[in-house]
Amino acid sequence: MLETSTLGPLVDALRDYDDVRIGDARALPMEAYTSAELFDLEMEGIFRRDWICVGRTEQVARSGDWFTTEVAGEPIVVTAGSDGEIRAMSAVCRHRYMAVASGSGNSRRLTCPYHRWSYDLDGTLLGTPLMDTPVRPDGTPCSLPGYQVETWLGFVFVSLAANPEPLTPQLVGAKETLDPYQMEDWRILIAFDEVWAGNWKLGLETALEGYHLDGLHGGEIAAMMPSKGCQFVEATDRWSCFRLEINFESEFGAPTKPFADAMGGLDAVASPTVSIHPNVNISCSPASTTWLTFMPLEIGTTQVRGGYLVPPDEYERIHAAEGELEFTQAAIAQLNREDSSAMIDLQRSAHSRFAEPGVLCEKEEALIHFYRYLAGRLHNEGARP
Ligand code: FES
Ligand SMILES: [Fe+2]
Fold first, then answer.
1. Distance, CA 119 to ligand 1 centroid (Å)?
2. Cβ distance 291 to 262 under 8 Å?
3. Domain 169-373 in the same topology as domain 51-159
4. How far is the CA of 340 from the centre of ligand 2 (A)?
5. Top mutation candidate among 94, 114, 143, 144 for ligand 1, by most atoms within 8 Å of CB
6. What is the pLDDT of residues 176-203, one digit of tens each?
7. Are 195 and 215 in contact (CB under 8 A)?
8. Longest dimension (CA), the chain
9. What separation in Å is there between the alpha carbon of 95 and the centre of ligand 1?
């Protein structure tokens, strides 16, 4: 573990990415994955302040739907109220701190499992068995504290900050890139929720580049989208995009050809992967999208949630077609296995005394932009005494 006094140099090293060009840029110092102080700084400067993707609107499509998540150690429940509005609030009971919900469900109210205090889906305290309904010391109601929510292309983002800068205006270019895929209404064909034994940045970094496809995903996935067809496109301080050329001669690529042809333009030959910093990666192909969210639990432990989205009519067709859902599930499970095993190996070797940052390939240019994002968010935090 680094001494506190080395945190400043680590944050300064991040600042160096402001001036570096791809070709000269190197990977992050390995301490970025092992420093407990940096991890704390990331929670404070990023995960408690920025917009964090927690899921899809489909998970709260019906009144009464809810699901839980955890951001920077804060238990959160996302609900669809009787008015249909999507809200996010602290899941910590106002009585004695039990999480009032876990997992997901559909109900008219949230009832704490400890002593059965119950809450409306907008957070209002409704009932307190065997006692009068209390108020807070200042006389205000004992509601579950709410968080800011924005939805974008069917993704649900939450911010723990009181007044975060609105998200949607920051993603105008990303939306233009993804608009042809019309994924706002796409359905979740496959969902996954796993814990990977590595630092959150290692997972995101793998998702930020297609350079690793031939290595980690040899076989049919690399045959469809080989590393050589990966090209960085653009980035802002909020998001980045690269594209992967599709080989329509491959087993996985061939069925996507009619969808690609229908899209036309650049999307007919190369599909975009867009990452919204800090924690969501949206990887398109002509008739599907795989999304991944990375939620840090501890320095070397990350909750990885995501899924595979398809257009509504494809959702129906695949469910009706014998074996196709199972085939796709197996392919996604393999993809995740390969990426998660890399994350675990990287986290281990980060502790090697021979680990030092190597030169990045031009196909990894999105990494630099992610590092600049980190630098921007952490510099002020790190400069505090
Ligand atoms: S902690 Fe929730 S009712 Fe007691
Ligand atoms: Fe991968």
1. 11
2. no
3. no
4. 9
5. 114
6. 999 999 999 999 999 999 999 999 999 9
7. no
8. 69
9. 5
Tell me if 235 CB under 6 Å of ligand 1.
Answer: no
* Ligand 2 centroid to residue 213 C-alpha, Å: 6
Buried residues in 296-322 as b, exposed as e (16+ CB within 10 A): beebbebbbbbbbbbbeebbeebeeee
Q: Give CATH for domain 51-159.
A: 2.102.10.10
Ligand 1 pocket, residue 115 CB under 6 Å:
yes
Integer Cα distance of 109 and 119 in angstroms: 6
* Of the options 3.40.50.11190, 3.40.50.300, 3.60.15.10, 3.90.380.10, the CATH number for the domain spanning 169-373: 3.90.380.10
308 lines ligand 1 (CB under 6 A): no
pLDDT in tens, 11-47: 889 999 999 999 899 999 999 999 999 999 999 999 9
Ion ligand 2, residues whose Cβ is below 5 A away: 339
Check pLDDT > 60 for residue 1: no
Domain ranges of the chain: 51-159, 169-373
Spatial CA neighbour of 154 closest among 193, 192, 185, 191: 185
